[in-house]
């Protein structure tokens, strides 16, 4: 699903964010990305959906080489990916239904298919009674559920999540993680950057630890491994 070979990312200010990354992530895996702040986790995540472009090396996602991908081709890449952020990034003037449907409207899906898919994912995330509500009328956990529904409405092969529980209380965080676990059980690859030690230590998935832009640990069924 995802392969990186000798990937380096240098920013214009001469900061080297990642240094010679080599990694393979298979279809259906659930992977946590952990490490100290400033270690390169966000850059690692962003390169997977071409928010950031590698300076050198090779990145392939589902067979597509991201290092040679033209900017105009990026939207097509992201049709097979879902991305979930810490701050939700919902459209404030669209209600729950419209926020999720928008992801399908931009690729010109049939209105009846859009309706079916949106209602299916709303049922999965437990928000069928909130379809007409706007983001500012929802709790943080509910907003994240909408964001997750939006990320999976197009049946992506991989969902990339950057600190998806970072703004949520512990109980809500566990509800969100159970949802991610169910999505993964349906065959979707999940890659998640997180600082949540309890979740990583309890759920015991594959753990990739990054420090100073390098992978220092890659362990299946691993723990968080840091004390802050």
Automatic annotation (TrEMBL):
Keyword Magnesium (UniProt): no
InterPro entries from the UniProt entry: AAA+_ATPase, ABC_transporter-like_ATP-bd, ABC_transporter-like_CS, ABC_transpr_LolD-like, Cell_div_FtsE, P-loop_NTPase
Gene3D superfamilies in UniProt: P-loop containing nucleotide triphosphate hydrolases
Alphabetized UniProt keyword annotations: ATP-binding, Cell cycle, Cell division, Cell membrane, Membrane, Nucleotide-binding
Any one GO biological process: cell division
Pfam families: ABC_tran (PF00005)
PANTHER family given in the database record: CELL DIVISION ATP-BINDING PROTEIN FTSE, IMPORT ATP-BINDING PROTEIN
Biological function: Part of the ABC transporter FtsEX involved in cellular division.
Protein name (Swiss-Prot/TrEMBL): Cell division ATP-binding protein FtsE
Lineage of the organism: Bacteria, Bacillati, Bacillota, Bacilli, Bacillales
Gene that encodes the chain: ftsE
């Amino acid at each position: 699903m995802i392969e990186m070979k000798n990937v380096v990312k240098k920013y214009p200010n001469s900061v080297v964010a990642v240094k010679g990354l080599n990694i393979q992530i298979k279809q259906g895996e659930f992977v946590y990305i952990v490490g100290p702040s400033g270690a390169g986790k966000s850059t690692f995540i962003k390169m997977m959906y071409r928010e950031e472009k590698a300076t050198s090396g090779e990145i392939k996602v589902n067979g597509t080489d991201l290092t040679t991908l033209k900017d105009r081709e990026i939207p097509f890449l992201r049709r097979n990916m879902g991305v979930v952020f810490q701050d939700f990034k919902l459209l404030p003037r669209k209600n729950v239904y419209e926020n999720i449907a928008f992801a399908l409207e931009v690729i010109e899906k049939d209105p009846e298919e859009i309706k079916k898919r949106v209602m299916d994912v709303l049922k999965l995330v437990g928000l069928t009674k909130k379809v007409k509500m706007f983001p500012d009328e929802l709790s943080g956990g509910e907003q994240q559920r909408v964001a997750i529904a939006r990320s999976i409405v197009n049946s992506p092969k991989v969902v990339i999540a950057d600190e998806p529980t970072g703004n949520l209380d512990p109980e809500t965080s566990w509800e969100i993680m159970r949802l991610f676990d169910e999505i993964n059980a349906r065959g979707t690859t999940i890659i998640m950057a997180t600082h949540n030690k309890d979740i990583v230590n309890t759920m015991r998935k594959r753990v990739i630890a990054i420090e100073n832009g390098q992978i220092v640990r890659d362990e299946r069924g691993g723990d968080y491994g840091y004390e802050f």
